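Dear colleague,

Thank you for sharing your sequence with our group. We've completed the structure prediction you requested, and as agreed, I am returning the results in plain text so they can be pasted directly into your records. Please verify that the sequence below matches your submission; if there's any discrepancy, let me know and we will rerun it promptly.
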Amino acid sequence: MREIILSTESGSDLPEKLIRRHGFEVVPMHVIMDGRSYDDGRFPLKKVYEYYTRTGMVPHTAPVNEFEYISFWDGLKRAHPNAVIMHFTYSSKASATWEAAVNAVKDYKDVYVIDTLNVSGGCTAHMVSSYNYIEELKKQGEITDFPKLAKELQELANRAVCHFIPGTLEYLRAGGRVSNAQYIGATLLQLKPLIEMEEGKLIATKKFRGTMDQIVDKFMKAFIEKYKPARDCLYLMYSMGLAENVLKRMADNALAYGFASYEYVRTGCVISCHGGKGAMGLAAMREKEEKKESLKK
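Please find the predicted structure tokens below.
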């Protein structure tokens, strides 16, 4: 049976233990500070926050380019000559990584590009679900139809859900995503916007009022009620600076809601450039919809 490798960009924020457990491969996106490009995940995250404190500006981010994809996949091919690669990109509507991957993949016959339509923990949920799906298929026999498999993994993206709340609007204001008036008003009223992934786009949908420890229960309840996720695993997203009591409350709630397990997903440098410190989020896979038999005779 041919080896199947699942790869992605660093913006998927895959926890290291999941990378080791499932053999995922990761190519870095980029963070640009003081005119220098740094590989995401290969420098201390606190450097992002230190840069903002020093300059009052958020670092720029950059996608993986075509040349980098080719170099990345060539390396995987040399190490795994007979492997098939399923590459999962950051949402095509939130980054240029998907477009670069699609252009680069034209030179390969055994590399398939999957648009996660997600970011961070949403990508993680999609990839783990895809890994588990492939493992179940292997039990049924040898996988030979790889275009069909790629199509099925793409369809799984429709079940991945993700939303989060920035810990502060400072970074969104500095990056030009909210105005000074919006920032001041939200700060005075302790309003925090909920950012949801809708058809691959990041959309602000509602607001919560209060501190993170005051709103964590309402935030999680709203997610569960809206998305009705499968209870196998809940991905608890957070950025550096989220209080330990909030992290513990998220884990306690996951178990109380009947999830078999949970995984913490700390946002990396790319997401942290936009969301800042102390953000929290959730990601999961929706339950599979069973096809109902027609009642017509």
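Summary note from our side: Residues 61 and 214 are 32 Å apart (CA to CA).

Kind regards,
the structure core
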